[in-house]
Amino acid sequence: MIHVVKKDSPKTRDTIIIRLLAILGALLAASIIVIFAGANPIELYIGIIEGCFGNLYRFAATIQKMVPLLVLSLGVMVAFKMKFWNIGAEGQFLMGAVGAALVVRYLPNLPLPVMIFAMGVLAFVFGAIWLLIPAFFKAKFGTNETLFTLMMNYIALNLVVALQYDFWKDPGASGMPKIANFPDNALLPSVSGFNLSIAFAIILVILIYFLMNYSKIGFEITVLGESENTARYIGINITKTIITAALISGGLCGLVGMFQTAGISGALSVEITGGLGFTAIIVAWLSGLKVPFIVLNSFAFAVLLQGGSYIQTAFQIPGSVAEMIQAIILFFILGSEFALHYRFISDKKKREVA
């Protein structure tokens, strides 16, 4: 029988080589799909680069895709560092958007700076509360946070559906199930396609880096993630640490709801997440729960998303082909992670090692 066993931590050189081989293998495998779709693989890959960096507008679009993924990944990372498996970033994202839209709906005439501040605060609070609920049950009753946070996603989604199709439906939308667009005083200022969410993201990266590496709460979260018994032994308040980490994690994911509604879509809708909450889980995990690598991987995924969108139009290939290319690349990258950290051994070899 074949068994999967964990390897020792890989060397940096091995990590670089295996990941480069994974990317090369992904491009070769994706080329087969591209050829069957009637396109030239080399031209298509060049098109992906042009779609991301060809001009200022395209680069701005790439950064716009990076920002929500980056902040969501930071939020997921904080919870994962404590081994609290927050699979509910999608729901916290949506609830943050609901909080931002709530400010616009009931205080529509606030000045721009006050409006943005109020939207950001309420988005953070709504996202934090949405994760605080499963965190409380985890801390008090030991419930499974993976299932709990996953189910909370669907509650948030159906809440937004109810708002869009009923309670907040725009009467001026000619019967379409749509929530009214935000007014100009509720939109993030932008220059050449770069909006203010980029500045917020930079600040958040710096804050979370120092929080996790140089603060008391960051130390407590890390120790609790390594060993709950050790955390108790050195006097860490387990319940307080879980709740605090959940508030930070959920709040960061909630902030993305404000970034997307006020910076990209201009309105609340069920489509604003685009599955980024689940993608953020992959980004955080592939980054080893380290902030600098989260920044790099968020940018790489944004290039993949923006490039995939561009080639659909530029090369007139079906959207399904672009999605398959993205999936193949992601599959090979995840496979490389497995190759770096695990290996197969037979029963005979296992007995010899023992």
Write a concise keyword list for the protein shown above.
4 strands; two-stranded antiparallel ribbon; transmembrane transporter activity; two-stranded antiparallel sheet; transmembrane; membrane; 354 residues; cell membrane; transmembrane helix; mainly alpha
Explain what you see.
It holds the Pfam family BPD_transp_2. GO terms for molecular function: transmembrane transporter activity. It is a multi-pass membrane protein. Keywords: Cell membrane, Membrane, Transmembrane, Transmembrane helix. With 354 residues, this protein is mostly helical. It has a domain at 66-288. Helices cover 74% and strands 4% of the residues. It has 14 helices and four strands. Strands 1-4 form a two-stranded antiparallel sheet. The model has no long low-confidence stretch (mean pLDDT 90).
What's the layout of helices and strands?
Blueprint: E1 2-6, H1 12-36, H2 41-53, H3 56-81, H4 89-106, H5 112-141, H6 145-167, E2 190-191, E3 194-195, H7 197-214, H8 216-226, H9 228-233, H10 238-265, H11 276-286, H12 291-314, H13 319-341, E4 342-346, H14 347-353
Antiparallel strand pairs: 1-4, 2-3
Main location: membrane
Organism: Acetobacterium bakii
Protein name: Branched-chain amino acid ABC transporter permease
